[in-house]
Structure formats: C-alpha cells, structure tokens
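Q: Hi! First time doing this. I have a protein sequence and I read that you can turn it into a structure. Is that right? Here it is:
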Amino acid sequence: MPARRRPDPDADEAPGEDGDEIDEARPFARRRAGRPVRRHGRPAPQPWSATADEEDDEPPSDPVELEDGPGLFHRPKRPVFYRARDAWWFEPLVALMIIVVLLAGLYAYTQNWPPMYVVQSSSMQHGANDAVGLINTGDLVLAQATNPSSVVPYVVGMQTGYTTYGEYGDVLLYHPNGDTAPAPIIHRAIVYLEYNANGTYNAPDLNGLPCGGVATRAYLAPTMSGCGTVGLHGTLELFHVGWQSVTVNLTLADLGHHSGFVTMGDNNINPGTRTGDQDQPGLSSLVAPAWVVGVARGMLPWVGSLKLLLGGDASEVPSQSWAFLGISLAGIFLLGALIHFGLRAEGIEDDRRKALEEEAAQEEPEHPSRFRGVKAWFSRSETEDDYDTEEPSPPPRSERKRGRSPSGGRPRPAVRRGETPAKRSRHSRPPGGDADL
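A: Yes, that's right. Below is the predicted 3D structure, encoded as structure tokens:
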C-alpha cells in the first residue's frame, strides 16, 4: 500500500476545510488518505489550478464547434487530418475500381474477351416493338464460351422443350465464314449437319421428329423415302420453325463442304411470304464449330443503345427501348442519391454524437467506480504504473474542527494545554477525603 503523503505547507487548502464547498457533481473528490486512483490505462488528467478570481470558473477546455442544424449538406467542424475519401480523386478511383471488378467478374463468367456484344440489328426481335426478356436492338448480350458439342439446335429443343429467349434452342455468336474482322453475328442455331466425303450430309438431330406427308411433319428430306437423316442431298425442308411457324428451305449444295450449324434470326422472314431467310448461303456457309464465339447467356437490356447512338447506328432501336432506358437510368440515379444522402446523414449524426461525447469527457473527467468487482482484483496485479498521482486527502477530524491558521498555510499544530489549578487541586487530594477533617 502506498505511503501516506505529507501535506505540503505551501499548497492550497484541501477541499472541505474551513467551510469550503465541495462540488456535489464530483462524488469522488474526497478520498481516503493514501488511497491511489486507478485509471485503467487512461492518461492521467492534467492538474488545473485556479486563481482566487477564477475559483468558480470551469476548467479550460477545447470544445468541438458544431454547425447549426442537422442538414444533409452541413458537416461539423472536425480536427484537421488527411483522409483519402476527402481527396478529389477518391470518387473517380472508386468508380474505376467498380468497373474493373465488374469486367473481371464478367470475364470469369463468360471466359471470353470482350465478354459482351451490342446487338446492332432487329434480326432477333419478335416484331417491331421491344419485348422484355427477348433479344432486341441495343441490348448487351453476354457471349459465354462453350464446347460446340453442347450447343442445342432448334430441332433438338423441339423434342426436349429446351428454350432460350422465347424460342427453342441456343443463340450463337459466330464469325461469318471465320472472318474475325467484322462484328460477330448473333442468330439461333437451327440444325447441325455433318458433311460426308461424297458431298452428302447427315442430320442426326432430326431423328425422332415426324416426317413425310402428315400435317404435323417437322421436316422433309431429299431421299428415296423422304424421311431419312443420312446421305441427304438436294433440298432439305424444315416446317413450323420459329414464333411465326415458317418453312425453311436449305439447298444443301450451297452450304459448303464442311460440317456446321444452319443458323437464322428469329425475325428473318422473306417479305410477303411464310418462308424463313436463313444465313446460309447469303451471310455465311455452315457455321463451323471453330467460328463460334460463344452462346448467349444473359444480357443487359437497352444499355447498348447509347453506343449505337454515339456511332450513328441507332435507327433500328425500338422507341420503347429509349423509354425503358430513361426510366432505368433515372431509377439508378435516384437509388444512388438516396444511398449517398442516407449514409451522409448517418455519418453526420455519428460525428455529432462523437463530438458531444468528447466535449463532455473534456468538461468532466471519468472517475472509476470504487467497487471494481472480485474478478478485476484477481485478474491483474496492481503495480505502480496502474496508479496516478494521489489526490490530497482530507485532514483528520480534530484539525477540521480547529481549522487552519489565519494565513491559510500549514495547519495549526495541536497544543496540549496544561492543567488548571482547580484540576491540580482536585487530583492532589488524598483518597481518604479532606485532610483538614
């Protein structure tokens, strides 16, 4: 236990003596003599002394000035220190990082670079208007790299019920005739044909489909029976293809001397007829598996219209796409603004709360409780570093009654008074009574 400190003769009077008032708001201002003050790791408060004219004044403090009102565009004044988020380049850097992360995620998903392409024509639309969920002019389509053997053509989707973007089968992005210079073509795979050395084709995808002269026939093959799938030559006819149920006529001699996919856009119909206009041989020969860029797997609607507008190719963009794009951009901006101002308001409220707490802590230092609990006494040992300087302890009760010297310095020493003559005569009498009796 620390030794008791001797009173300093030059020090001011201890609180509570000679009628001095004790601050009621500081219940621990008067402590037992020699009892140290534990601060639990906090820095010891600096002693504050006041002159006679400033005894009733508050200790000097440095309060944080706050602006009036909790407005969203007002910030409390804080200590000046550098923060990256206050720099002019912070927000552009965050936006750039978001774009980089998005592109990296899209590349990881598609395994293609670039991972997406803009649809420049209306060949995949179901009509002249924009239809949500289908591929329209101005959409950004993700091209996912895939094994060509896993591509599902239209005639296979008819049997299995597999659909993408409103029709049976997969939608391919491919380089016409293997030329990588122009932009890829995005059309639906109709059927896969295998080329034979004798100039004929096999169509294994047609197995199981109705054939011949029936009303529900799906194809008619140029063979002896009209329903074969091996050694095809001449013209192959496919019936009830697409959302308009058109007929597709394939002249096999013009498709090229290799295996590949027959492709066609959902909206490619010969004007004034019920006949489909396939890509072969007008746009490309049979699409070889090596020419396939990827399969359409997801899209961002309407966003690519801005690129087409800047390039002067936005004539085929449906009017509904511009309306949907404007509503989407306004919604994104409004959502971003709400998030921004919500976080700003919360940050301002936190700053004000912290500032008020710091100001209160400066005005009235925290005093630890007298009772620290049994666990605290046994959890750590008390060392000299755990204590601050001792506060002056109140004088003994006898000195408080007698008071201090008029000069206000060292306490008046206790002087033992001598015995009065009456006391001496009373104590000097013999125990037997009066001597004169």
